[in-house]
Amino acid sequence: MDTFLAEIEQTIARWHGIAAPNDPARRMAADLIATIRAFEAQRGTLAFEDEPASFEAALLETREE
Amino acid sequence: MTKLADLSLVEAADAVRLGQASSMQLLDALWANLEAVNPQLNATIWLDREGAEAAARQADRAVRDKAPLGKLHGVPLAHKDMYYQAGKLSTCGSAIRQDFRPAITATVIDRLAAAGAYSFGGLNMAEFAQNPTGHNKTFGDCHNPWNLPYITGGSSSGSGASVAGRFNYAALGSDTGGSIRLPAAACGVTGIKPTQTRVSRYGVMPLSFSCDNVGPLCRTARDCARIMTLIAGHDPRDPTSSHLPVPDYEAALDGDLRGLRVGVPTTYFLDGADTPVVQAMEQALEALAARGAVVRRIGLPLMDAISACVGIISRVEGATIHAQWMRTRAADYGVHISSRMYPGYTIPAPYYVEALSRRGPILKAFAAEVFATVDVLVTPTIRTCLPTLEETDIDHGPPGTEVKFMAVSANTRPFNYLGLPAVSLPCGFDPNGCPIGLQIAGRPFAEVRVLKVADAYQRDTAWHTRRPPVLDAVGALGAAVA
Fold first, then answer.
1. What is the pLDDT of residues B158-207, one digit of tens each?
2. B155 is a catalytic site residue
3. Strand B294-298 vs strand B376-380: parallel, antiparallel, or unpaired?
4. Structural domain containing residue A28
5. Which of B139, B18, B143, B22 is nearest to B76 (CA)?
6. What CATH number has the domain bearing residue B144?
7. What phi and psi, each to the nearest 5 degrees, are found at residue B267?
8. B357 touches chain A (CB under 8 A)
């Protein structure tokens, strides 16, 4: 088992008390590396917003009239 | 002469209202098809013939008594088995809830009942609405009416199969990542995922509070429009539901597409698409252009950001909802369910918050760029020819099966993140005889527009009227209406 996956299993067990239910679960946990890379590529693009905003407000603002 | 079970929802409802058919005749016609084909499709989890007959008798009495009749008076329906009806079974497609009888009734069920419809059963679905294929460990996999070894799409598998199999006029499904549009596409029916907040979710099993949507799967866009008019609108019991007024979606269907700007994405949605799927979409675009639409090819902004965020929200929220059962009853889940939830427990909270907090700004930027140029986006609902149940069976397949499994919903998930309304309707068949779905998405609250485009297309094409071969053996069962 690689270190990354071992860390994930330990973290989930420690924080949630949940064990890996099966091998596909371990494979999919290992695939989180792709999620991390996708978020790495987005770093710096999240703008700090001074005004309150929400998704629901955006739905209304961009709606079809 | 059209057999009663072959009528669309609107035709069936109008037949009852006009006295051309009784509610009991509709029920009998559906039941004849159900008994003939459902043993092969496995689209139902439970049935209530006795209760349905009582409702049909009451509906027919109201017609005889000239009582006020609702828009769906006397129409039997069955829904995905996650719409709570007080005291009735609601398994959510799971072993864990196989005896669950909620104490409340979903608002959308109440609204359909107020329009005169009644329920006759609970439909098969992915366990806890968590797969895009229709596999189910507890109640058995649902099979595609057009080619039995192939997937129905999920998670509203029984909703798609029962409507395509002509033993249900319409079914409610739910859509968190494509679960209405995928079975609509795979089964050759029409389904709409409304704008996020458009339809109440009170009394509906949650998968992901931020991305869950309620909507119908039907034979036609007009059928969807009728149901949407009935179920949309604010519900005090679901404070997240929108206060915007609800238009009469059905009345807006006029076939007029002159000047409509149709955008076809040049990025993301056709990556790795199969040739028969692309050809079917191109032919559909020609049909829209023949009605006056203007087709434009456009690149879409922010798809990398959307792709990064899209899976995070539902994964984390789904894992959170199921945490206690994952501790105590993990073996009761299908392998493909528990395995997909498991990584959700280690996604950092800042990632989840970022995915949520970027949703509004991304929607605004996406809408400003895309909908300044086009009115709707058209894509394949599923990029590839349909896979088989075996090819996407994570529980029993080799490592890597999950890649084909996840690819099924690649084209539907982005619109859940953006909260946009999107309809899927049939536009052809692949070389295996399985339907191909066309997805039409619009601005927030543009249900009228996307349904109007779908309806206009169905005025000129007959894909939605085709009957699956599984019905060939049924022969002349069922009464007819002139």
1. 999 999 999 999 999 999 999 999 999 999 999 999 999 999 999 999 99
2. yes
3. unpaired
4. 3-61
5. B22
6. 3.90.1300.10
7. -120, 150
8. yes
| Nearest-Cα residue of chain B relative to residue A57 | B360
> Rounded to whole angstroms, how far apart are CA atoms B415 and B217?
17
B345 touches chain A (CB under 8 A): yes
How far away is chain A from the Cα of B84, in angstroms, using its nearest Cα? 26
Asked if residue B225 lies in contact with residue B249, where contact means CB atoms within 8 angstroms, the answer is yes
Q: Do A41 and B443 touch (CB under 8 A)?
A: no
Contacts of B35 (CB under 8 A, 6+ apart): none
Cα dihedral A6, B130, B84, B173 in deg (nearest 10): 160
Q: Do B342 and A28 touch (CB under 8 A)?
A: yes
Q: Examine the residue annotation and report whether B162 is marked as an active-site residue of this protein.
A: no
User: CA-to-CA distance for A19 and B406, rounded, in angstroms?
Assistant: 23
- The structural domain count of chain B equals 1
Extract the tokens encoding B5: 């079970």
**Partner residue opposite B346 with nearest CB, options A17, A29, A45:** A29
Closest CA in chain B for residue A35: B308
**How far is CA B83 from each of CA B34, B147, B381, rounded to the nearest angstrom?**
21, 28, 25
| B359/A55 touch (CB, cutoff 8 Å), yes or no | yes
Reported ipTM:
0.94
Structural domains in chain A (count): 1
pTM over 0.95: yes
DSSP codes of every residue in B254-305: ----TT-EEEEESSSTTTT--HHHHHHHHHHHHHHHHTT-EEEEEPPTTHHH
Domain that holds residue B115: 2-481
- Chain B residues with beta carbon closer than 8 angstroms to that of A38: 304, 307-308
Tokens coding B446: 């543009």
∠ CA B120-B211-B225, nearest 5°, is 50
Residues 6+ apart with CB under 8 A from B384: B272, B273, B274, B277, B407
Query: For residue A44, what pLDDT is reported?
Result: 86
Q: Is B174 an active-site residue? A: no
DSSP state of B426: E
Out of B3, B80, B193, B452, pick the active-site residue: B80
The answer to whether residue B2 scores a pLDDT higher than 70 is no
Residue tagged active-site, from B179, B314, B409, B424:
B179
CA distance B137 to B130: 12
